[in-house]
Specification:
Distance between the termini: 37 Å
Largest sheet: 4 strands, mixed
CATH class of the largest domain: Mainly Alpha
Helix content: 40-55%
Order of helices and strands: EHEHEEHHHHHHH
Oligomer: single chain
Number of helices: 9
CATH topology of the largest domain: Glutathione S-transferase Yfyf (Class Pi), Chain A, domain 2
Shape: globular
Length: about 200
Amino acid sequence: MATQKPIQLYDSAASPNCQRVKVVLAEKRLPFEAIPVDLKQKEQKKPDFLKLNPYGKVPVIIDGATVLYESLIINEYLEEKYPDPPLMPREPARRAKIRILIDYGMNHLDLPYQKIRLESMKDKQERNQETIEGAKRELRNLLRRLDGEIGDQPYLAGDFSLLDAALIPRFLRMEGMGVLPDASLPGLGKWLQRMKDRPSVRAIM
């Protein structure tokens, strides 16, 4: 039987979207070839790249004849095609709950997260600290739901899953923003440290 070529990953090392795919690739021990895409040079907008992803964004994976983009969809594909080790539970209700929490972490946290990110990109003297502190309070309030979900479990849905992989790049950035750790979110603080101890996460830090 012919050996399949490694998965190709069109990658920007600093991209959180690429990072969540790399976490899943590492957890599943799937060999891959990273093909760097220079976002500052707009390589993602060149015609050859747009043939792979008309959105003009990273990541893109090529797995044999399959070309895929959008990080969360890529991770679902990797889980279905390469189910060992499993990163989703077998029960449909638990799988659905994980997808709900991925949506919560990616979409419902996005507005205050982006407020902080955009202010942080400005020169220090031009940053609106009131906006930043207000967005931090808003984020911490929204994070209480996830802190309640984790409880005493080691990971957000019990066992390590696509949920943890999806959210960890954003949580590492929230730590850098000073949103975490926070005494009001003890479960998430322990989870974040546990995640940073995993080799798949250390590799993207």
